[in-house]
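ok so heres the complex, two chains, lmk if somethin looks off
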Amino acid sequence: MAKKYILVVDDDPDLVETVAMMLESKGCEVGRAYDGVEGEESVKERRPDLIVLDVMMPRKDGYVLCSELKANEETRDIPIVLLTAVGEAVPTTTYTHADGMSTEADDYIAKPIDTAGMWEVVSSLL
Amino acid sequence: MAPQTRLGGFKLLKEVVWISLLESNQNKGFPAEFCHLLAGEKINLLFLTCGNHNGAWGLDIVADPDNADKVFKLIEENFGKIKYETVRGAVLSLFPHKSDPEITAALLDVFGKEGIDPNALAYSNSAISAVLRKEIVDKATKSLFEPFSFSAYRTPADWKLAQKGKEQLYKEVVASYQEKQPKIYALEWQDGQELLRVNLNRRDLGVMGNAFRDFSGKDRAFSFLVSNPSSEKTATNLLFCLPESGRQDSTNMIRDLIPETLMDRISPVSVFSMNGPHFGDRYGIASELLTAFDNARIDLLALSCSIHSITGVVPANQGDSTIDAIQACFEVPSVIRKP
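and the predicted structre for the whole thing:
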């Protein structure tokens, strides 16, 4: 069976490597991008089986990219898991988990992530 | 012209103060004591490297300029006789290095060619970070576009444009992490490594690029790299880990290139790496770890803290006690053993 290709998009390069290592240890192939614009370009270059997408990023944030991909007929079927560092602890921000789901993300994972729990979410969508 | 290597990008932390300390009184607990004092003053370290050489410690730290005077005062009040030097500058972090010595080689090559001598180097699981004096920051940034291309930032001007906005939100997110026991995403562990320590003139860092290229040709990936202060002001200690060769291959390869250099090799060692949410923005993280190591009598050989990661080297026979010490002070969801 072909390896599943997962794109990880986050502006924290250390976190990208940690998530990539966990996914590779489960037999996945991993692409890496470090902001929303690069993530968008990566999707055009090679269609991923799933995207792990951070919310707060320079240039184009995860909500915007998620909305764009879900509005596009060619990419709307790609499962997207949002990584969000902000929730109830930061009430002044415009970013909340609920907003994440309203952008039609398939699931979300709150930071700090639990790598084992993350695989449960990812594998359920593959 | 050599083909460019495509990388993810680079980050530049501007307007920071670098401080380099050399403790030669055989005080084994010096890094833990020093970091504990800084944490007590809520001073965050944006960059930290430690290296031990025959009982003497070299430390490079980077702090916010607003905290610099407090750091100097702490040093003078608590470790009065310690030699230290300081400059204003920036931390440039290039990612991802993919553990590939060829990428580090290309970076050191171009720095050598352009006459850029970094004050310190550090390594996270994704990035190589270099501390640069203020006067050479622009030159160093521009020089990256010769050996590397960046899919997101095609020119230095593109990169500058990408840095604006979201600062306030970022601060709020960082402030939301105040766990009693800090959580890390995962602890990565690698056995079967050797630690090499090479003392060389800073201007010879570029020549080391050739040695690293040879390691790359032999399929030997880096698991750790820092530079550390030397007792001679123009020199630096370069510490790095490679898979254990079982012979003297690595040292012979370096001697062929830089015959006069002093070096030693410690083997076997284990390398750990851990990263957590905004570790680079929060004070006290390194202090927790170093204190735990001190209490558990771990003989830490070298440490690197940059971006949001802590990477360290310990003797291979202290692996279990090191993992226990880390788990005692951090919430560790999983230990990933690298092949």
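quick notes: Residues 65-78 of chain B form the longest helix (14 residues). thats all i got rn
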